Amino acid sequence: MSDNLPKVAWIGLGIMGSPMSENLIEAGYDVTGHTLERDKLERLAAAGGTAAASVAEAVRDADVVITMVPASPQVEAVAYGPDGILENVRPGALLIDMSSITPGTSVDLARAGAEKGVRVLDAPVSGGEAGAVEAVLSIMVGGERAVFDEAKPVFEALGRTIVLCGPHGSGQTVKAANQLIVAVNIQACAEAVVFLERSGVDLGAALDVLGGGLAGSTVLARKKDNFLNRDFEPGFRVDLHHKDMGIVTDAARAVGAVLPVGAVVAQLVAGLRAQGDGGLDHSALLRAVERLSGTRV
C-alpha cells in the first residue's frame, strides 16, 4: 500500500462494487469495505482489503468514501442518520456516490455533505459487470471541477472514459440518458432476434454481420451471446433497469422532455418484471418479445 494514496472506504460490494473495489486494491489503494453480505466481505478481505462491521467503522479513517448501492433509498440509508457516512466521516473527506439514483437525491446529498464539510461527487457508471471487472467503465460525474480533478486518479483505476458533465446531479442525468439508450437498444436487438429466428436465418451469422454495420453497437457486442444462448445470468438486473427507467421518465417529465419510445420500453421492462423476470439480465427483454410473439418462454 502506498503511503501517499488516499485511504478509501467502499460501501456496497455487489456485482459492480466487488470488482471495482478490487481494482482499487490492485492499483495500490488501502480499501476498507462494508456491505450486507458476509461472503462479499470475505471476498474483499481475500483480495487484500479490510472488512468493516458497519458503515461508521468503514468510513472513520477514510480520505475518500465511495458508495455503490442499488438506488436512492439505499444511498440515503448509508449516508444519513447517526450510523451513516456524514455523521462518522472526518470533515474534509471526499464522498463519491457511484450508484445510479435520481439527480435530486444527488443534489440533496451534496448539500448535506457541504454542511458537514464533506465534498461530494455523483459519479454513476456504464459498462456493466464486464466493464467493472476490466476497469473500462464510463464514469459520468457531477460536481465541482477542483473536486473532480482531485478524484481523477481514483476514477482512472476504475474506468476509461471519465467526464465531468456539470454541477451536482449532472452525472445522474447523463446516466439516466445512458439507460434510456441502452434499454431501447436491447429492445431493438431482441425484436430483431425473434424476427430473424422466425424467418429461419442463421442467428449467429446474422448478428455477426449486423454487428459490423451501422446496426452494430456496444449493446449488441456485449449481449450477443446472451441472445444466442438464452443466457440471462445477471450482469445488470431487470429490476435495476426498471428503477432506472423510472428515473429517466420522472426526470424527463420534470424538464418537459417527451420520450415516446422510452415510455414504451419502460412499460416493456415493467412487464418483464411483472412476469417474474426481475432477477434476470436486462437482455431478457428478449423473453418479453417472445411472449408477445406467442413463443413459449
Please provide a written account of the structure:
It is a single chain. By secondary structure, the chain is of the alpha/beta class. The protein has 2 domains: 8-167, Rossmann fold (3-Layer(aba) Sandwich); 174-293, N-(1-d-carboxylethyl)-l-norvaline Dehydrogenase, domain 2 (Orthogonal Bundle), CATH 1.10.1040. Helices cover 55% and strands 13% of the residues. The chain is built from 14 helices and 9 strands. A 6-stranded parallel β-sheet has the order 3-2-1-4-5-6, sandwiched between helices. Strands 7-8-9 form a 3-stranded mixed β-sheet. Helix 2 links the parallel strand 2 (31-34) and strand 3 (50-51). The chain is globular and about 60 Å long. The relative contact order is 0.10. The mean pLDDT is 97. Belongs to the HIBADH-related family. Residues 169-288 form the 3-hydroxyisobutyrate dehydrogenase-like NAD-binding domain. Keywords: NAD, Oxidoreductase.
Topology:
Layout: E1 8-11, H1 17-26, E2 31-34, H2 38-46, E3 50-51, H3 55-59, E4 64-67, H4 72-79, H5 85-88, E5 94-97, H6 103-115, E6 119-122, E7 125-126, H7 128-134, E8 137-142, H8 145-156, E9 159-166, H9 170-198, H10 203-211, H11 218-229, H12 238-255, H13 260-277, H14 285-292
Parallel strand pairs: 1-2, 1-4, 2-3, 4-5, 5-6, 8-9
Antiparallel strand pairs: 7-8
Note the main attributes of this structure:
single chain; 297 residues; alpha/beta; Rossmann fold; N-(1-d-carboxylethyl)-l-norvaline Dehydrogenase, domain 2; 2 domains; three-stranded mixed sheet; 14 helices; globular
- Please mark out the parts with pLDDT under 50 across 5 or more consecutive residues, or reply none: none
Distance from first to last alpha carbon: 50 Å
CATH architecture of the largest domain: 3-Layer(aba) Sandwich
Number of strands: 9
Q: How large, in whole angstroms, is the Cα Rg?
A: 20 Å
Which structural class should the secondary elements be placed in?
alpha/beta
Task: Give helix % range.
Answer: 40-55%
* Outline type: globular
State which percent range the strand residues make up: 5-15%
Mean pLDDT: 97
- Give the strand order of the largest sheet, numbering strands 1, 2, ... along the chain: 3-2-1-4-5-6
Continuous helix count: 14
Number of domains: 2
